[in-house]
């Protein structure tokens, strides 16, 4: 499933891939999409983020977008969720920075609505008990 929003002359995309009951989400856009951060969460665990260094040694700040989406969808997650984020707009303006939060909020709300309407009926894994071993 893919969602997009355009404001102030750039587009931000959110794409979700379902893996069993788990979600892999990408947030990309602008002139140079990339993977700047990786954010992980479940319904019951804290949101955690790894930020990658950018070309100049500073760390990417795309987690601001990912965490915004994560907080919106967390209560509706069917399993684990990994969000990669990387939006780069060349010579970004203050207006473009200001609307990025609103854009991420819209994408998060779109994803939340989709999660609430989607059936995640994947088979549950079967494990050996403590008294069993593989044959």
UniProtKB/TrEMBL annotation:
<protein>
    <recommendedName>
        <fullName>Prenylated flavin chaperone LpdD-like domain-containing protein</fullName>
    </recommendedName>
</protein>
<feature type="domain" description="Prenylated flavin chaperone LpdD-like">
    <location>
        <begin position="7"/>
        <end position="116"/>
    </location>
</feature>
<dbReference type="InterPro" id="IPR048844">
    <property type="entry name" value="LpdD_chaperone-like"/>
</dbReference>
<dbReference type="Pfam" id="PF21758">
    <property type="entry name" value="PAC_bac"/>
</dbReference>
């Amino acid at each position: 499933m893919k969602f997009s929003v355009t404001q102030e002359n750039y587009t931000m995309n959110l794409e979700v891939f379902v893996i069993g009951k788990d979600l892999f989400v990408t947030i990309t856009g602008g002139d140079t999409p990339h993977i700047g951060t990786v954010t992980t969460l479940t319904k019951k665990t804290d949101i955690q983020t790894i930020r990658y260094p950018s070309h100049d040694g500073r760390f990417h700040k795309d987690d601001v977008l990912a965490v915004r989406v994560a907080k919106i969808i967390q209560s509706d997650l069917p399993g684990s969720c990994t969000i990669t984020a990387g939006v780069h707009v060349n010579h970004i303006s203050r207006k473009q920075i200001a609307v990025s939060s609103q854009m991420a909020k819209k994408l998060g709300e779109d994803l939340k609505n989709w999660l609430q309407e989607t059936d995640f009926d994947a088979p549950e894994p079967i494990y050996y008990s403590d008294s069993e071993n593989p044959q």
